Amino acid sequence: MFTSALHRAGHDVSPCVRTSFDELVIETFDGTNHVPMTVVTDPPGLRPMDWIMLAVKSFDTAGTARRLAALCDERTTVDVLRNGAEETDDVQALAPQSTVVPTLVYIQAERLAPGHVRHGYGNRLDVPAGPVADRPSRLFQGGGTEIRPQQDLVTAAWRKLMLNAAANPLTALTLHRTKVMDDGMIRRLAEGLMRETQVVAEVFGARLTGADVWQTLDFMKEFSDGTARRCCTAGSRATPWSGKLNG
Which UniProt keywords apply (predicted)? Predict the structure, then answer.
């Protein structure tokens, strides 16, 4: 999704992936977009880039070592798109000369096949406030992605983890989309999981309160209702969409 946004913003973008594809296909409620791309699958011959969006799970970070070694130098900024509260020291170790920026992802999208993505809801990145936030704001200008600076990224990261700690396991265990949160019992269970996350977060310095729990529950309902409304207005494209918020 962010590859497509950067392309719309007028940048030369090269996805560095495991499985090659000829074009990026983005399904949305409004239709399907086809974005031509030059895809890279092998590090040899790569040159350092100005900007890298690193979108892998934490346990896959070590597997990016050869690519980052080829793509990074002292001029490179690496945006680490993660949803947990981990530090980015592991990425900094793989790109010691580069600027590494922790980034939170608020987007609902599903990978259907290599280069084929279904976008449901949301299109936002949260970054640390200050000068570091100015560059991604300019980078994505005109691409449709909202860049939101956070004065306290630690608290913001735990707030996002609070959302995932409830929504992801409960939708997986019940085999239902986020609409399942309308069930009173499931909502109470989600609240309990969020309050447990809040307690752990406070130990790690996050400033979360009961108000954050309620706001996150409301956000989850707003997300579910918004997706449902858009599905209802999408005609024949009104297929069920995943409730998972990730990058």
Answer: Plasmid
pLDDT band at 227 (very low <50, low <70, confident <90, very high): low
Q: How far apart are CA 203 and CA 180, in angstroms?
A: 30
DSSP state of 83: S
8 Å CB contact between 24 and 109: no
Q: Which domain holds residue 40?
A: 2-151
Alpha carbon distances (Å) from 66 to 3, 72, 96, 103: 21, 10, 13, 22
* Residue 120, helix vs strand vs coil: strand
* CB-based contacts of 235-238 (< 8 A; 24+ apart in sequence): 237/27, 237/29
Q: Assess if residue 161 is contained within a domain.
A: yes
Distances (CA, A) of 40 to 16, 92, 241: 5, 22, 29
Is-catalytic flag, 221? no
- Sole residue written with tokens 């995932």: 164
Identify the CA nearest to 155 among candidates 107, 195, 205, 192.
205
For 16, which DSSP code?
A: B
Which one of the listed residues 57, 160, 179, 244 is annotated catalytic?
160
User: Do 170 and 214 sit in the same domain of this protein?
Assistant: yes
Instruction: Indicate the length of the chain as a whole number.
Output: 247
Based on its alpha-carbon atoms, the radius of gyration of the chain, rounded to whole angstroms, reads 19
**Which residues does 190 contact at the CB level (< 8 Å), separation at least 6?**
166, 167, 170, 181, 217, 220
pLDDT in tens, 70-124: 999 999 999 999 877 888 999 999 999 999 999 999 888 888 999 999 998 888 9
